[in-house]
């Protein structure tokens, strides 16, 4: 395993990219509008922009690209934490081994069912399973957990897509994971800077930088072709991390013909029991985060960007315009806390504590269509086949009606109060579907939903 993150090269690029001319920035912005992405040098130039007028241009462009690829859709999900007992000692995390707590747990099948029920009752259809690393959280356990989530039904609802963020495993176990019917496998490198990585991960399997770096390769080799990467912003210089994320994406594209399905941009939050003297070690301001998201949107236009409830509601409302395509809502980061409604510290503190229905009302009022769509992976549109449809822009023909159908389903089953207010928005969106045949079928499916049919999609 060779380290495809060449630190010297990244530092050189960042150094060379200082003070570019306005004309050079303009050329890069125009190139990004062709939706073919940017290389690390071009991205570094944008990351180094500090002037307000230029930054505003970058933000405007990100918004334009987001609109042309993702329209006004925003996918919603919630994390489901299975365990908080960890063999690793990541200094920033409340679950780390040396943070001795009276009680840690690994949810059993019954508890997983109760948590899933609570999430379904809010209206969720897409979950991200999250677990700390422990011998008890092995592939047998994960198989049972995922089966339990998919098998749990409540009223008209059920979970239709489980994504997963758990410790890397061997190819043989990744193959079994794939067979459970997961969507995306996520693994965050946390920091791509090797020395910082070493300082932050003092013991346990995760202390091996290269093994972590190749986690997504192993998942791909096992046939999991929707991969999520990410960095924990605040551990090291954010510009370095963005370029490293791009090199990681390029590596996956070169090796497997398809880059990451998603990039996550978590910022480090204070965590009870973490071992970091002052928070965060390398501060990332709100405007830095805006820049990170906007530059990623320009650099990898077809890769989903995920934003969590680590960020507060006001900032999230700004960031959704800049290129974010998926957000979590109503999240809890302590195992068992959806069904017990316990208000306790989880893995880290959450800044956006709004319920799913509050988030939905807010984004819909802003003209976004909340989407619970799970159609792509259920119809085999994953990995390269997804990108083959996404890149020429054909995916939009499915996504918009699917988003509307899942939103309508949510309103009918979980939020009749909001349904009345959303009638006009939904009919106006249906009337905007450009293909008359798709428009007609979508209207028919809408009617069927009202008559009690469920889970209709293109
Ligand atoms: N244990 C597995 C791992 O570390 O890959 C998977 C789950 S871990 C709970 C999920 C992510 O939480 C980590 O990859 C890390 O980026 C994030 N995280 C940990 N501590 C955090 C903190 N204090 N603030 C924000 N995010 C944090
Ligand atoms: Fe364990 Fe993950 Fe937390 Fe590290 S970040 S201590 S591996 S749960």
Walk me through what this model shows:
With 458 residues, this protein is α/β, with parallel strands linked by helices. It folds into two domains: 67-388, TIM Barrel; 394-450. It is 48% helix and 10% strand. It has helices at 7-16, 22-32, 40-47, 52-70, 109-122, 139-151, 171-179, 194-200, 209-213, 215-221, 238-256, 286-299, 313-319, 337-340, 356-365, 375-378, 383-390, 396-414, 416-431, 436-450; strands at residues 73-83, 126-131, 153-154, 157-158, 161-165, 185-186, 227-230, 262-264, 304-307, 326-328, 369-371. The protein has an eight-stranded parallel barrel with strand order 1-2-5-6-7-8-9-10, surrounded by six helices. The protein has a two-stranded antiparallel ribbon with strand order 3-4. Helix 7 (171-179) links the parallel strand 5 (161-165) and strand 6. Helix 3 packs antiparallel against helix 11, helix 18 (396-414) runs antiparallel to helix 19 (416-431) and helix 18 (396-414) packs parallel to helix 20 (436-450). The mean pLDDT is 93. It binds S-adenosylmethionine and iron/sulfur cluster (SF4). S-adenosylmethionine binds at residues 92-93, 130, 132-133, 165-167, 187-188, 190, 232, 266, 268-269, 271, 274, 310, 347-348.
């Amino acid at each position: 395993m060779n380290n495809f993150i060449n630190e010297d090269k990244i530092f050189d690029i960042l150094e060379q990219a200082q003070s570019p001319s306005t004309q050079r920035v303009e050329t890069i912005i125009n190139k990004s509008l062709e939706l073919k992405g940017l290389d690390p040098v071009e991205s570094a130039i944008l990351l180094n922009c500090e002037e307000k007028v230029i930054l505003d241009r970058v933000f405007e462009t990100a918004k334009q690209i987001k609109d042309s690829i993702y329209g006004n859709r925003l996918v919603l999900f919630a994390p489901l934490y299975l365990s908080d007992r960890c063999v690793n000692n990541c200094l920033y995390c409340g679950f780390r081994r040396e943070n001795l707590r009276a009680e840690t747990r690994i949810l059993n099948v019954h508890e997983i069912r109760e948590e899933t029920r609570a999430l379904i009752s809010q209206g969720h259809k897409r979950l991200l399973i999250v677990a700390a690393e422990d011998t008890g959280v092995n592939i047998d356990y994960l198989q049972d957990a995922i089966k339990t989530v998919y098998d749990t039904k409540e009223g008209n609802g059920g979970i239709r897509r489980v994504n997963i963020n758990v410790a890397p495993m061997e190819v043989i176990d990744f193959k079994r994971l794939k067979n459970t019917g997961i969507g995306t496998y996520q693994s965050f490198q946390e920091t791509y800077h090797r020395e910082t990585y070493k300082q932050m991960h003092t013991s346990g399997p995760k202390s091996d930088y290269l093994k972590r770096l190749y986690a997504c390769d192993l998942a791909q080799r096992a046939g999991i072709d929707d991969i999520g990467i990410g960095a924990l912003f605040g551990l090291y210089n954010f510009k370095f991390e963005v370029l490293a994320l791009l090199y990681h994406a390029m590596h996956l594209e070169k090796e497997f013909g398809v880059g990451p399905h998603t990039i996550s941009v978590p910022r480090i939050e204070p965590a009870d029991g973490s071992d970091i003297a002052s928070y965060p070690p390398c501060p990332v301001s709100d405007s830095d985060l805006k820049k990170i998201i906007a530059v990623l949107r320009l650099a990898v236009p077809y890769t989903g960007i995920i934003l969590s409830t680590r960020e507060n509601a006001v900032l999230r409302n700004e960031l959704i315009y800049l290129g974010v395509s998926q957000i979590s809502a109503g999240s809890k980061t302590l195992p068992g806390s959806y069904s017990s409604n316990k208000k306790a510290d989880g893995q880290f503190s959450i800044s956006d504590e709004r319920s799913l229905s509050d988030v939905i009302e807010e984004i819909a009022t802003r003209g976004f269509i909340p989407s619970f769509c799970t159609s792509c992976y259920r119809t085999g549109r994953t990995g390269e086949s997804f990108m083959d449809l996404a890149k020429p822009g054909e995916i939009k023909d499915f996504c918009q009606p699917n988003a509307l159908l899942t939103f309508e389903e949510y309103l009918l089953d979980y939020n009749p109060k909001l349904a009345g207010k959303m009638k006009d928005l939904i009919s106006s969106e249906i009337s905007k579907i450009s293909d008359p045949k798709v428009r007609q079928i979508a209207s028919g499916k809408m009617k069927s939903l009202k008559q009690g049919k469920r889970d209709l999609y293109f």
